[in-house]
Amino acid sequence: TNRAGYEKSPVGNGPFKVTSTNTQETKMQRFAEYSGEDKARVEKLTWRYYSNDLTAYRDIQAGKLDFMDQIPVSRLATYKSDFSDRNFNDAVASIQQIAIPVYRPEYSDPRVRKAISMSINRKEIAEEIFSGTRDAAMGYVSPTIDGYISDQCGEACVYDPAAAKRLLNQAGGFQGEKIELWYNNDGPHKDWIEAMASQIQDSLGVPTVAQGTENFADIRSRANALEFEQPYRSGWQAAYPSIENFLNPIFRTGGSSNDNGYSNPAVDEKLAEADRTVDIDEANALYQEAEKMILQDMPVIPGLYIKQQSVWSDNVKNVMVDWKGDLVVTSIEVK
């Protein structure tokens, strides 16, 4: 396959077709041969990629940009007054997580990974950094998804610095020089990752820092190549509304988004059993068992459940955000 050619000119069957794309923007045009019922109402779309979310927010205010899916953390207190009748605020099928490179010797022991998890005060971050617009994640599956069950993680996701320190000592201590938490600067992540780093350092006594990289593409490129030597932000947005979508791609051996080296044959077997099960309730119960098994290994640290805050300019109307948090591109119109 010609991956480079596809990335420059992807082929699909949706309501829009890509006419050009680069690192700054992607331009799309309405696809005249689209056979679906939800025809696009605008002729052209341009997706712009910002390295600074505050710049994008100001462009929305100035009418230079028409939609922003997630506002900056610094505007959580003011966005409703800035965009009184042009905002969205609701839970979506997304979760923020910290992926651990389990192939690295200093992170190979599940006790080390659990100790890091227990060092994080998720509720404090949700309240103080996000003004209560996020919830502490206690598992890998969004509460908006069929099959979700609360508190799958148990004590491993409860903030307990003393227990975290004891667990780390049982594992022989941290064998690296420091912990780095990597994140992408083109999203609203700096504040909460820095807060996590500070909590981990205070709880475990291990030097911990937040490290930003330019954009999400850089994070994904390094993760896909198994190049990370340190933990990194690894959010997940559902592709379809099922608990299966939050587990198989990320945690099955060789999964399409398993980019931290995690593998557990027992988990693979349980996921396969769930995949084969026709009855939805029975299948969900098996996926829930698999989720609990994975959390015992803690290859990825649950972070925050997402409530999304989106805004749009006065240039557009009929703006809708779907259950995943995506703009419904076929409904939006120019005034």
How would you describe the overall organization of this protein?
The chain is built from eleven helices and 13 strands. It is α+β, with helices and mostly antiparallel strands and 335 residues long. Strands 4, 5, 6, 9, 10 and 11 form a six-stranded antiparallel sheet that branches. Strands 1-2-3 form a three-stranded antiparallel sheet, with no helix packed on it. A hairpin with a 3-residue loop joins strand 1 and strand 2 (25-30).
**Oligomeric organization of the protein chains:** single chain
**Shape assignment:** globular
The poorly predicted ranges are none
Assign a percent range to the helix content.
25-40%
The whole-angstrom Rg is 21 Å
Number of domains: 2
Distance between the termini: 42 Å
What summary fits the major beta sheet?
A: 6 strands, antiparallel
Write down how many β-strands occur, each being a DSSP E stretch of 2 or more residues. Answer: 13
